[in-house]
Design a protein that fits this description.
With about 350 residues, the protein is of the alpha/beta class. It has eleven helices and 13 strands.
Amino acid sequence: MNSQFKCILVTGAAGFIGFHLSKRLLADGYQVCGLDNLNDYYDVRLKQARLDQLLDHKEFSFAELDLADLHGMQNLFKENAFDAVVNLAAQAGVRYSLENPHAYINANIAGFVNLLECCRFNDIKHLVFASSSSVYGANTKMPFSVHHNVDHPVSLYAATKKANELMAHTYSHLFKIRCTGLRFFTVYGPWGRPDMALFLFTRAILQGKPIKVFNHGKMQRDFTYIDDIIEGVTRIITIQPKPNPDWSGASPDPGTSYAPYKIYNIGNNNPVELMKFIEIIENALGQKAKMEFLDLQPGDVPATYADVDDLIRDAGFKPQTPLETGISRFIKWYKEYYA
């Protein structure tokens, strides 16, 4: 535990990543305040089951609150002396953003500006926030680097995540708030989200139903195991970003700044084709999948691949859990949880 950061606010604490991070921070000796609005984007019982585990811990407190509720947020910050904030609360999902765009503006834009305002007026030492590999959008230069331009998102979800990076930079510039954005690459593992491929495929295969295989199986994803994500986030919390003395407005580096602001990728640095991913699930389940091959969906990108050199250099860590290991752990959890 870093003595500079005793009390940490984790937003989205009943979510997949927020739950795992809160558990890890509590184990490391931090006080954690979890915030979540427990919305019904997916099964609330799963969120509640995660939360119940956290509520068993005496150093954990919980606020059922929406980031978009400015008054509620201001009161929460007034009542607690947070040293750092990790923002994992967001309306997630690329495909859902095609159906319900307003949910993304409320949670990811209005909610995030409320959080920035609260950090501004409450002397927060470090704001760490979740961005996404989806910000790379139409980029095709691989691996994706935080030093590449990312001005061509292909989904509203991606656009809101890019907006978060821009908003955080503005507050870092204006008010010297130390901000670090983390671009997560296809996170999976136990207690995962039911709208993600691993969950959907596992459920369908066990029920003998066909799985939807988009882009005819030619998608590539840099699947990153949850423990690797949490290790990266935990290390980054205590690394406060410093201004880059070499930053130049003549050739601006998007991953750093003259302000105390930094962006990192957290990915496995190993893209896997969707058909290989399915094969590993089949092997772990001992059951073959029935497949329905479909075109690439609007908003989806054909491939993701993370350059993690900055993470290795600054945090001394590289995600490396093999997909076979991570998937078998997920399936073990899935079978126990759903009996």
